Each structure stands twice: as C-alpha cells, then as structure tokens.
Amino acid sequence: TKLYKIAVIPGDGIGPEVIQEGVKVLEKAVELTDVRFDFHYFPWGCEYYLQHGRMMAEDGIEQLRQFDAIYLGAVGFPGVPDHISLWDLLLKIRKEFDQYVNIRPITLLDGAPCPLKNTGKEQVDMLFIRENSEGEYAGAGDWLFKGRDNETVLQTSVFSRKGTERIIRYAFETARKMGQSLTSISKGNALNYSMVFWDQVFAEVASEYPDVPTHSYLVDAASMLMIKQPERFQVVVTSNLFGDILTDLGAALAGGLGLAAGANINPERTHPSMFEPIHGSAPDIAGKGIANPLAAIWSASQMLEFFGYEELAGSVLKAIEQVMVEGAVLTPDMSGKAATSEVGDRVVEVLASMHAAAKAQA
Ligand code: NAD
Ligand code: IPM
Ligand code: MN
C-alpha cells in the first residue's frame, strides 16, 4: 500500500463543485484497492486574492512541493484580472514544477454527445501532447510608449532546443508505446523563427523513430481536418498556445468541455504533477450545482494511472462511459437534468457495481 499525498486546490467558480465529485471517486477507489490518499485542501484562488492580495500563500510553491500530486479545479473569476489570477497560480505551478507535458485525451466515449453525425470512437480518438512550459506562454514581452501614439506591445515566444526536443521526444515515445502515428501541428509558413525551428526539431527527432509514422500539418489546416477527418489524428504534439486552442476544439468533438480532462506532467517526477479539467471556472453557471463533473473525474482517473493504478483508472473511464450510455443522470450541458453531485454519485455507484461484478467472476 502506498499513501499518496494530494494537494487539492478547488479554485474558483465551478472548480470546487467538480473537484468535490472527483474526490468522491478517488475515495471510492481507496475502498476498492490498496491505494491510499491523504488530501490536503488549499483555499487559493480569486476569493483568497481579494482577501490577501495574492493568489496563493507566499510560500505556496514550497508548500506544494512535498505533495505527490496536485488536483486542481479551475482558476480565474470576474473581479480579478485573468492575467494576474492565472499567472500567479495555475501557470506558476505548471512552470515552477516543470510540468512540461500537458496530456489531453480527445476520445469520443460511448454515450458522449458529438456535433458530427455518424461519428464514434473509431473516428475521434486522439491524444494531445501539448508543450506546457514555454512557447507562446513564455511570459516574455514589453509594453512600450504607454498611452502614446506609437504605443506598442511585444509578446515573445520562446522555443528552446531543450524545451522543444523534450516534448517532441516524449510524444514519439508515447506514439511508439501506443503503436500509433504522431502528428505535429505547427505554423512554419508564417512564424518564421519559432515554427521553422519546431519543424526542424520534429524532423530530427523523427529520424530516431523510423517505426513511428508521422504527419505534419499547419495549424489552420489542422483545425479544419479535426472536424472533417478526425480519424487522421492519433497522437498529436503541438505548441503551448496551439495545444490550448485545439484541445477546446477537440473537447467540442468529444462531448464538450464538461468531459475534457487534462494532466500536467513532470515526467522526471522530481516535482509534483497536476491534474485538472481543461475547462475554466464557468462563471455563467457557477454556484448553480449544474456543472458537469465528468471532466474532473476523468482527470482524477489520469492521476490513478499516473500512480500506476492503470486498471482502476480504466474502470473509472468505463464507469463514466456507462453513466453516459444510460443517459439518466447527466448535467444540462449533456441535455440532462441532474445536479453535479448526482452525476458524481452515479459514477461512484457504477464503479462499485462494476468492481463487485468483476470480483464475483474471479
Ligand atoms: P470556461 O471553460 O470556464 O467556460 C466556457 C463555456 O463552457 C461556458 O459556457 C461554461 O458554462 C461551459 N463549461 C465549462 N466547463 C463546464 C462544465 N464542467 N460543465 C458544464 N459547462 C461547462 O471558459 P471561459 O468562460 O472562457 O473562462 C472562464 C474563466 O476560467 C476565465 O477566468 C478563464 O481565464 C478561466 N480558465 C481557467 C482554466 C483553468 O483553470 N484551467 C481553464 C480555462 C479558463
Ligand atoms: C487551459 C487554460 C489555461 C491555458 C489558461 C486559463 C491560462 O485555458 O488550461 O487550457 O491557456 O493553458
Ligand atoms: Mn484552455
């Protein structure tokens, strides 16, 4: 039995509402296997900012460092400028803990709503690997001649050899392990430094993986193809900003933002990794108890997988799938009438009965 220390940061808006359901599922997992969790809650976010003038405790990063993983809801809420709230909490954690791999599965599970007709898992089954530490999110730039006629702002992208190579290599390793193709999405025609370099590094690393079939698309064409021919994509590697945008698009293909999960991984495991849904704090539905918790639950399942509980992680996904196929207990974004907590309860029930059935068979 291993005891994992989990830092829970519910955050803003619907963050706490969905995280509560994810924790429910993790607590059920504890009953079903020998995994043990010690949850520690951190009240950081926009309300904390309004009270304390900062998004997290001054030694927040040091406090988090001792945990095995971080489970985060969402950050950002009207009342605090987004660039402050995000840079001082979410993006800070990603950077400080060198979580340079952002894994975002875009898989159309059975029962999930898809805007495309005649489309299922055979067509939509991608694994996005988003660069998560630099690129367009380097945080570098300048604001010149403020308020003058020649006012000019610079937002600099940074693509280091190390940063570019490690994410592309990680993607090749993943594609090889999965026996799938790897698609690189870039924009070398217009971004004549950053993306030319990206394409060059991709070609270099590709030569070390002759067994992995590769494709390379420009980001504009790729966004069209994701809709028109999603089956072209298996493992995908792309830059920080492109990955951000394309995974919301992918989420729409695979059941909506309420179902889209993500993991921010530090592959060397020298720092904690962080698990969080792709969606934000959804101010438009916050406080109503109708947020879809499935994305947060799926992210929790990614955490189980990360700790080596692959089978249990798979069962959580199957439970999510069964709840959607049943269709009786779903939130309004999935055309249901259920509350957030009812969906969480149903996933836990299904998970428990699946486990009992498997045990009876054995
Ligand atoms: P959003 O993802 O919060 O919401 C977009 C739309 O999707 C809204 O209509 C919302 O109601 C819906 N939606 C999102 N999650 C849902 C769920 N679980 N169930 C049902 N519906 C859901 O994006 P936004 O409105 O652009 O951003 C709101 C705030 O969240 C901003 O401050 C933004 O910066 C922040 N944000 C944070 C994160 C994060 O913490 N990881 C991610 C994205 C956005
Ligand atoms: C995401 C979010 C963040 C990002 C924002 C809130 C900074 O949109 O996790 O997808 O752009 O990475
Ligand atoms: Mn995003």
From TrEMBL:
Reaction catalyzed: (R)-malate + NAD(+) = pyruvate + CO2 + NADH
Enzyme Commission number(s): 1.1.1.83
The protein's required cofactors: Mn(2+); Mg(2+)
Keyword Lipid biosynthesis: no
Enzyme class: oxidoreductase
InterPro entries membership: ICDH/IPMDH, IsoCit/isopropylmalate_DH_CS, IsoPropMal-DH-like_dom, TTC_DH
Isopropylmalate dehydrogenase-like domain sequence ranges: 5-347
GO molecular-function term, one example from the UniProt record: tartrate dehydrogenase activity
Protein origin, superkingdom: Bacteria
Pfam families: Iso_dh (PF00180)
Signal peptide range in chain numbering: none
Cross-referenced PROSITE patterns: IDH_IMDH
Keywords for this protein: Manganese, Metal-binding, NAD, Oxidoreductase
Similarity annotation: Belongs to the isocitrate and isopropylmalate dehydrogenases family.
Name recorded for this polypeptide: D-malate dehydrogenase (decarboxylating)
Biological source species: Brevibacillus ruminantium
